[in-house]
Amino acid sequence: MKKIFKLVLSFIKNIALVFILAFFIKYFLIQTFLVEGISMLPNYKDNDFVIVDKISYQVREPNYGEVIVFKPELHKDINYIKRIVGLPGDKVEIQLGHIFINSTQVIEPYLKSNLIYYENNRDYYYSKTLNKDEYFVLGDNRNNSQDSRSIGPISKENITGRVFLVIYPFSNARIVRASEGFKDPVY
């Protein structure tokens, strides 16, 4: 009887340890998200299952081209996935669908080539200088994305983390490089 009790107690301890470890990983290290919608086409598709690194931005700042998951200020119950285009202090301009950071055009090889994005003429001209804790984010599918053009810049505190892995569907599975082809706007 004593042996069974020790075995049950050991089993309960192991289960508790697994739950504590899972809680720690989910809330402090990584988290999974399901991409919903078409705002990040062609690079992230509806129903892609991604893993987000939640710790990187505790030790370094977000950077150009990184795809992040965040909760916008006005919709704290919704997770958005977008690409960082502007960093704190940058002057972001959109002219005829082209992005300029501090007056230098940004090359975006991850977008479909030769497409100029217009949505209800809002991209003919846009200009915003970011504050010290603001990031400008855009969806890769610019004509179908609710992003900083409409919801405004996002603060670092609203960023959940950086997408670093697409795990499902298996045909789309890949490790996501930090900048995934973004060319810094310094030419």
TrEMBL record:
Gene responsible for this protein: lepB
GO BP, sorted A to Z: signal peptide processing
This protein's name: Signal peptidase I
Membrane topology value: Single-pass type II membrane protein
EC number: 3.4.21.89
GO molecular function terms attached to this record: serine-type endopeptidase activity; signal peptidase activity
Family assignment from sequence similarity: Belongs to the peptidase S26 family.
Catalytically driven reaction(s): Cleavage of hydrophobic, N-terminal signal or leader sequences from secreted and periplasmic proteins
Subcellular location: Membrane
The keyword Protease belongs to this UniProt entry's keyword annotation: yes
Transmembrane residue ranges: 7-29
